[in-house]
């Protein structure tokens, strides 16, 4: 159950969803992703809403990937397919939300956390934030549409390099690459930085925001329609391959040392 793992607040035209598992590095359980999708769906028709923000509690992690204990139980092709579809369905609620969705990155966005961040329309990041598609380190590929979003944002050549090398990009490099739209100065809080970033958005009418978001969503849907089955097929094949489980065992052994 998501319980208090997702905090929902609406104030002055802004819906804020806060992932609240700092003790678990804000790892993404599947029911937490469901809760994010449901919260957005519940507010989609709110005629006083202008912007949605997804952020996380603590100062270190936006989301450091999926919940390892939960993911370890996913072994079969059918289970992998169900997990992929479930996560993609939740993130599609972000992609298809009728108003702009901003990721406010308070720290690391890794693996599934990077997919969550890229599902948002725009990204504001603290000076210490990093983003990394680390899936390749565990011999898997992206599961929830994040690889598609990365390609759409920075182009196939640069995206391919980042996906294969599984590099973590610090805030300045991510900004230069076009992954982050704004980074906070070293002495600026994320809250203050976000508030300043949102000012021109909140100054626009809801109809203008909806109209421009509809254009962006339409373009995005075409891309996902053509590529989502390819991404899912290769994720399932990689997840159920012996190489993946060997990589998981190796990573687990390193953490225990």
Protein traits:
single chain, 257 residues, alpha/beta, 2-enoyl-CoA Hydratase, Chain A, domain 1, 6-stranded mixed beta sheet, 4-stranded mixed beta sheet, 52% helix, globular
Structure description:
- There is one protein chain.
- The protein is α/β, with parallel strands linked by helices.
- 52% of the residues lie in helices and 16% in strands.
- The chain has helices spanning 30-43, 68-72, 77-95, 112-119, 146-154, 156-165, 171-177, 190-202, 206-239, 242-256; strands at residues 6-11, 14-19, 51-56, 61-63, 101-105, 108-110, 122-125, 130-132, 168-170, 182-183.
- The strands form two sheets. A six-stranded mixed beta sheet has the order 1-2-3-5-7-10, with helices on both faces. It has a four-stranded mixed beta sheet with strand order 4-6-8-9.
- Strand 1 and strand 2 (14-19) form a beta hairpin.
The CATH level-2 architecture is identified as: Alpha-Beta Complex
Q: Note the overall shape.
A: globular
Quaternary state of the chains:
single chain
Computed Rg: 17 Å
Number of domains: 1
- Summed up, the helix count is 10
Low-confidence stretches: none
H/E order of the elements? EEHEEHHEEHEEHHEHEHHH
Number of strands: 10
Distance between the termini: 31 Å
The CATH topology = 2-enoyl-CoA Hydratase, Chain A, domain 1
Largest sheet: 6 strands, mixed
In spatial order, strands of the major sheet run: 1-2-3-5-7-10
Estimate the helix proportion, in percent.
40-55%
In terms of DSSP E residues, the strand content is 15-25%
CATH superfamily caption: 2-enoyl-CoA Hydratase, Chain A, domain 1
């Amino acid at each position: 159950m998501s319980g208090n793992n997702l905090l929902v607040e609406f104030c002055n035209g802004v819906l804020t969803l806060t992932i609240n598992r700092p003790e678990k590095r804000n790892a993404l359980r599947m029911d937490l992703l469901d809760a994010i999708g449901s919260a957005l769906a519940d507010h989609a028709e709110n005629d006083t809403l202008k912007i949605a923000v997804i952020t996380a509690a603590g100062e270190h992690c936006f989301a450091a990937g999926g919940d390892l204990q939960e993911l370890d139980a996913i072994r079969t092709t059918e289970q992998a397919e169900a997990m992929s579809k479930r996560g993609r369905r939740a993130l599609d609620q972000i992609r298809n939300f009728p108003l702009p969705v901003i990721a406010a990155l308070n720290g690391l966005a890794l693996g599934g956390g990077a997919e969550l961040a890229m599902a948002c329309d725009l990204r504001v990041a603290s000076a210490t934030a990093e983003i990394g598609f680390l899936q390749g380190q565990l011999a898997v590929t992206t599961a929830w549409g994040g690889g598609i979003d990365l390609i759409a944002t920075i182009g196939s050549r640069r995206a391919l390099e980042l996906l294969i090398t599984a590099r973590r990009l610090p805030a300045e490099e991510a900004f230069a690459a076009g992954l982050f739209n704004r980074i906070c100065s070293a002495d600026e809080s994320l809250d203050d930085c976000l508030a300043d970033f949102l000012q021109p958005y909140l100054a626009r009418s809801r109809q203008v925001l909806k109209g421009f978001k509809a254009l962006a969503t339409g373009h995005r849907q075409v891309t996902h329609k053509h590529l989502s089955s390819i991404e899912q097929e290769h994720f399932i094949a990689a997840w159920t391959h012996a190489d993946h489980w060997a990589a998981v065992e190796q990573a687990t052994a390193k953490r225990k040392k």
